[in-house]
Design brief:
Helix 4 packs parallel to helix 5 and helix 23 packs across helix 25. The protein is α/β, with parallel strands linked by helices. It is globular, with a radius of gyration of 26 Å. It has 5 domains: 3-28 and 249-391, Rossmann fold (3-Layer(aba) Sandwich); 42-242, P-loop containing nucleotide triphosphate hydrolases (Rossmann fold, 3-Layer(aba) Sandwich); 421-481; 491-545, no CATH class; 550-740, no CATH class. It has 26 helices and 29 strands. Strand 24 (572-591) and strand 25 (594-600) form a beta hairpin. The longest helix has 20 residues, at 191-210.
């Protein structure tokens, strides 16, 4: 059977057939080839000819733009040949200028090592002596001096770059000749981590300029809704956008499966995914299955092997040693494995060849992530199948009820805000430790908030004036005070067996790694065994389980400043600065939806400034006239708005907080407020404020289409709710969202099509 036959096979399955919500085909496209004038240098032309490579239009456009000296953002689909679009101009430059250097940044070590093979292949064929090498935390100390001195192309990651910029004198020859900086998988750099990487890149450019270089930036990214804006925020310069994909693609057959549909009790997500995988493997299709956790991946592998007798099924996860992962990647690429069940470790662009089908356990929160995962199959011109098995959360169920919206949904807007004062302050400390900093904070590089931040750091004694500018005077290394990915200076270190797993800011630590918490890290589950608030140290141990913990909290909000506001058909929408106080009261241990126990917590309140949008809903007493609960309606509308934000804004709902009240003292009215869950804000609330009407319309459609009567996880329940999803009133939530849209007549009778 080919991939084209899989939808019919699933529809004919007694268990799966009644749970199929949608089947469609996304038609493929023919290749569009381009030409270069002048052509590539002869060695590169020969390399392409020997491998049967004809350049697509977007690759030619990227090479032409680099030749003109422009910064470039290339935003095309998975397997469209984006890597070749920056490999060729790097080697073209080296052939013309043998002293030039290039730095290529990747978000994952495995991806850098995978890409090194492509660089080595070009180097070996053309005879261009580039000495391409990976320089990361695993690079042996004895190899590092030679790489710095001799390599013309270095592949690394932001974490390593953050550590080595302070030693820039050792990198002087490389930085002085730096002509190209490649930022691959650039869409990974959004939110808090994106703000850090954007400021890190500004520090890199500052040092390159100090040594007389001004490198071009080439950004390679998945399809985004705002590539020009995102690229500018990431590198601080306006890139030339290339978003027309000239690569070929086969037909993609899309199947949406909803376990919540069908007769009888709702089966688990894991069981439904396993049945789909067995059907795909049984049809002779080489299949990749994505799951959200290691425990689900291993359960699916175990039961799939038992059910279909295929032993060529393996799990793939982040915890494997590099050598083990490379063996699995090679077996998958060569067709020796029938199926691989993976956490999102394989979502990045590691070359695993052409697969027939992809099965996804739950929607990953964005169309970008879905397309990245679905694009792992049919990576050339062959037909492929993509099967999404929905979880019971609101976003998944919205798309099950609105499959036409899923098929036609444009890419989301990626959010990146370098103005967070806490993140900015950390990078100004690092910049001053690298080179003396101008007293104004160098706003041309670091933005308009740099002067205030530099002044505050000077007043705090962390920066001091000198003859050449502000210098760092802190006790420890500046980079240790500025961990990448952290939202504020108060960091908690999460360790297992003496090894650091990750760092969390205080709010994240209280929410995800509190005493007794089950922590999910790169698809692995751990149990928190020690929480030392004074030392900011958290100890965990491996804890394979299907259980999870949910923390309950109270939220207090003070509105400090309104930056912008506008009228809605009923009510007022505002955006501004707020102070949030979160009190974490207790946590629940749950096995799926079953509550096993509740445990009180004794953690001090967390207070932090951030940014939010809020909407006032006048006349909430009208809800009482409909025998509805006003507090439950506002709370339900808040959940629906947060749940649908990822449809329009590229974000994780865990990065967002919410609050609702039938009367708030700062507004004098019933209020719903949604805030960034990080000190200083990260731009999510601001983007949502701009797109509020679309978000509210999507939230309203979600509630109207849900078949439940009183609210459920598929519409107004939230897995992140700190109040244990109480109170909630579905009818009132629908009326609130209707009033905000100007529909005064809306009530809840029977489920309606939106």
């Amino acid at each position: 059977m080919t991939a084209a036959g899989l939808p019919a096979a699933l529809a004919g399955d007694a268990f799966l057939g009644e749970r199929i919500a949608h089947i469609s085909t996304i038609r493929g496209r023919e290749p569009q080839y381009g030409t270069l004038d002048p052509p590539l240098p002869e060695p590169l032309e020969a390399y392409c000819a020997a491998r049967g490579i004809r350049l697509f239009t977007h690759q030619c456009a990227a090479i032409d733009a680099v030749r003109r000296g422009a910064d470039v953002i290339l935003t095309t689909g998975t397997a469209s040949g984006k890597s070749l679009a920056f490999l060729l101009p790097i080697f073209e430059r080296l052939l013309c200028d043998p002293g030039a250097t290039a730095l290529c940044l990747y978000p994952a070590k495995a991806l850098a090592h995978d890409q090194l093979r492509a660089f080595a292949g070009l180097e070996g064929y053309t005879g261009c002596r580039a000495g391409a090498a990976v320089y990361d935390g695993d690079t042996p100390a004895h190899r590092r001096p030679r790489i710095r001195a001799e390599s013309k192309i270095i592949l690394s990651n932001p974490y390593e770059l953050h550590q080595v910029l302070g030693w820039h004198a050792q990198w002087r020859p490389f930085l002085a000749r730096l002509r190209t900086v490649v930022i691959d998988e650039a869409h990974q750099y959004r939110g808090v981590f994106g703000a850090h990487v954007a400021l890190l890149l500004r520090r890199l450019m500052r040092l390159a300029q100090h040594y007389g270089a001004r490198p071009q930036c080439i950004l390679s990214t998945a399809t985004l809704g705002n590539p020009a804006e995102f690229g500018f925020r990431l590198i601080g310069r306006q890139p030339y956008v290339i978003d027309s994909d000239g690569s070929p693609a086969g037909d993609r057959h899309l199947v949406l499966v909803n376990p919540a549909a069908g007769s009888g009790p709702m089966p688990s997500l894991s069981r439904t995914v396993r049945r789909v995988l067995q059907a795909s493997v049984g049809a002779g299709l080489q299949t990749l299955c994505f799951t959200p956790s290691r425990s689900m991946a291993e359960a699916v592998v175990r039961h799939a092997r038992d059910g279909c007798g295929a032993q060529e099924i393996a799990a793939y996860r982040a915890g494997y040693l590099p050598a083990e992962r490379r063996v699995l990647e090679q077996k998958l690429k060569e067709g020796e494995l029938t199926a691989v069940v993976s956490t999102n470790a394989l979502e990045l662009g590691i070359d695993i060849g052409s697969l027939d089908a992809v099965v996804m356990a739950g929607y990953q929160g964005s169309m970008m992530a879905f397309r990245q995962q679905a694009g792992r199959a049919g990576r050339r011109r062959e037909a492929s199948a993509a099967v999404l098995v929905a979880s019971d959360n609101a976003l998944d169920q919205y798309y099950m009820q609105h499959p036409e919206a899923f098929s036609s949904r444009p890419p989301e807007h990626a959010v990146l805000d370098t103005g967070n004062p806490y993140i900015l302050a950390g990078h100004l400390l690092c910049a001053a430790a690298e080179l003396p900093l101008s007293p104004d904070g160098e706003p041309a590089l670091f933005g308009p908030g740099a002067a205030d931040a530099a002044g505050a750091l000077t007043a705090a004694g962390l920066l001091a004036p000198s003859r050449k500018g502000l210098i760092y005077t802190g006790r420890g290394r500046a980079v240790d005070a500025c961990p990448l990915g952290a939202g504020s200076g108060e960091q908690y270190r999460v360790s297992c067996g003496g090894q650091l797993l990750e760092t969390l800011d205080r709010t994240q630590a209280y929410r995800e790694a509190h005493p007794g918490a089950i922590l999910l890290h790169q698809g692995e589950t751990y149990r928190v065994t020690r929480f030392d608030g004074e030392a900011r140290a958290i100890t965990v141990q491996p804890y394979p389980t299907d259980c999870h913990t949910r923390v309950l909290k109270s939220v207090g909000v003070a509105i400090d400043r309104t930056i912008d506001r506008r009228r809605l058909p009923e009510g007022t929408l505002s955006f501004g600065e707020v102070t949030i106080t979160e009190t974490f009261r207790e946590y629940q241990l749950r096995h799926f939806d079953t509550l096993l126990e509740s445990v009180l917590l004794a953690l001090p309140p967390v207070t932090f400034p951030t940014r939010a949008f809020w909407v006032t809903v006048p006349g909430a007493e009208r809800l009482e006239a409909h025998s509805c609960d006003a507090a439950g309606g506002l709370h339900g509308a808040e959940h629906a708005l947060i749940g649908m934000m990822p449809v329009h804004v590229l974000c994780d709902r865990r990065d967002i907080g919410g609050f609702s009240s039938v009367w708030h003292p700062d507004t004098g009215a019933p209020t719903i407020l949604v805030y960034d869950g990080y000190e200083g804000g990260i731009g999510l609330a601001e983007k949502a404020y701009a797109r509020f009407e679309a978000i509210a319309a999507t939230a309203r459609s979600l509630i109207r289409a849900c078949a439940c009567r009183e609210g459920c996880p598929s519409c107004i329940h939230s897995p992140q709710c700190g109040n244990d999803n109480r109170p909630l009133d579905k009818a009132a939530a629908l009326m609130v969202l209707g009033w905000l849209a100007g529909d005064r007549a809306i009530t809840l009778s029977e489920p309606q099509e939106a």
